[in-house]
């Protein structure tokens, strides 16, 4: 699969986000997380089975389409976002199968340079020309920081499409520093890197979500088909939080003002820590 060093200059925003390196890639636009159980363990079982099975599929149209039917019969077709297509051809790619990617891509194992993506729902052209909102709306430095900070493909794919959440977080850091942040100054300090990772991993471990919670992935398309629910601050006697955008993007629910303050303090702690460590290096 193409790696970022060859792709940065050919994409909107100048930072390639899809296939970053051997460990980091994103399958969010393929509906990767739009499944009943989006845990890492469940996705790995699903992707491993698909990849192993597809390796035995003859590379002709009928066999590839039959693979799709078998996968869809085996896996639950319930979707947290019913209108968000989940592609059955996403699997594990790379020399060590260490990241997610398209099993139909011409450089995927067994395809011998032939592009089979035309057999997917949206066709090969969509894969070549579609770029998620993060390409267009996240500043270059923010994108570079996230793709370097993510621990693996799973966390990266959950975080990189969260345009509003990432922008609000990093903009607040810049406001406190009174200057822009750069990848170089942030990533040279391990404490800064770990703080960014802690923030990204709130996507997984945010303790202030409604119960039950079924939408770990992000519906990032512009049609507003599945907006995040508003936070009813008045019900707990509070005004709109200074972190309202982040709290909404994390899909928050608060039963008391104390819970809201705990959430705000958690975010304050991460932003203060990152700002302080960066300022010490300036």
Q: Count the DSSP helices.
A: 12
The helix/strand class is mainly alpha
The whole-number mean of residue pLDDT values reads 94
Strand content: under 5%
How many domains, as an integer?
Answer: 2
Given as residue ranges, the uncertain stretches (5+ residues, pLDDT < 50) are: 1-5
Largest sheet properties:
2 strands, antiparallel
Order of helices and strands: HHEEHHHHHHHHHH
Residues in helices, as a percent range: 40-55%
Give the overall silhouette: globular
- Please state the CA-atom Rg, rounded to the nearest Å: 20 Å
- How far apart the termini lie comes to 38 Å
Q: Strand order across the biggest sheet? A: 1-2
Explain what this protein looks like in three dimensions.
This protein is mainly α. The chain has 2 domains: 4-131, no CATH class; 163-281, no CATH class. Helices cover 44% and strands 3% of the residues. The protein has 12 helices and 2 strands, in the order H-H-E-E-H-H-H-H-H-H-H-H-H-H. The chain has a two-stranded antiparallel ribbon. Strand 1 and strand 2 form a beta hairpin. The model is unreliable at 1-5 (pLDDT under 50).
């Amino acid at each position: 699969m193409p790696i970022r060093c060859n792709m940065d200059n050919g994409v909107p925003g100048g930072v390639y986000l899809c296939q970053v390196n051997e460990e980091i890639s994103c399958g969010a636009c393929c509906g990767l997380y739009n499944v009943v159980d989006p845990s890492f363990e469940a996705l790995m079982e699903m992707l491993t089975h698909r990849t192993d099975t597809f390796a035995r599929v003859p590379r002709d149209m009928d066999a590839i389409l039959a693979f799709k039917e078998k996968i869809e019969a085996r896996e639950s077709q319930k979707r947290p976002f019913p209108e968000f297509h989940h592609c059955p051809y996403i699997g594990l790619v790379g020399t060590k199968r260490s990241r997610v990617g398209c099993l139909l891509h011409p450089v995927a194992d067994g395809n011998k340079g032939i592009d089979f993506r035309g057999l997917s729902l949206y066709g090969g052209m969509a894969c070549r020309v579609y770029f998620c909102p993060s390409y267009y709306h996240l500043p270059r430095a923010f994108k570079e920081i996230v793709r370097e900070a993510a621990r693996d493909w799973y966390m990266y794919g959950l975080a990189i499409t969260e345009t509003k959440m990432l922008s609000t977080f990093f903009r607040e850091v810049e406001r406190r520093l009174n200057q822009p942040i750069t990848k170089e100054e942030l990533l040279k300090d391990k404490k800064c890197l770990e703080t960014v990772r802690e923030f990204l991993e709130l996507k997984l471990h945010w303790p202030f979500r409604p119960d039950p919670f079924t939408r770990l992935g992000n519906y990032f398309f512009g049609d507003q088909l599945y907006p995040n629910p508003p936070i009813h601050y008045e019900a707990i006697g509070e005004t709109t939080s200074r972190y309202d955008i982040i709290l909404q993007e994390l899909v928050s629910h608060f039963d008391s003002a104390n819970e809201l303050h705990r959430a705000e303090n958690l975010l304050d702690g991460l932003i203060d820590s990152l700002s302080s460590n960066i300022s010490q290096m300036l």
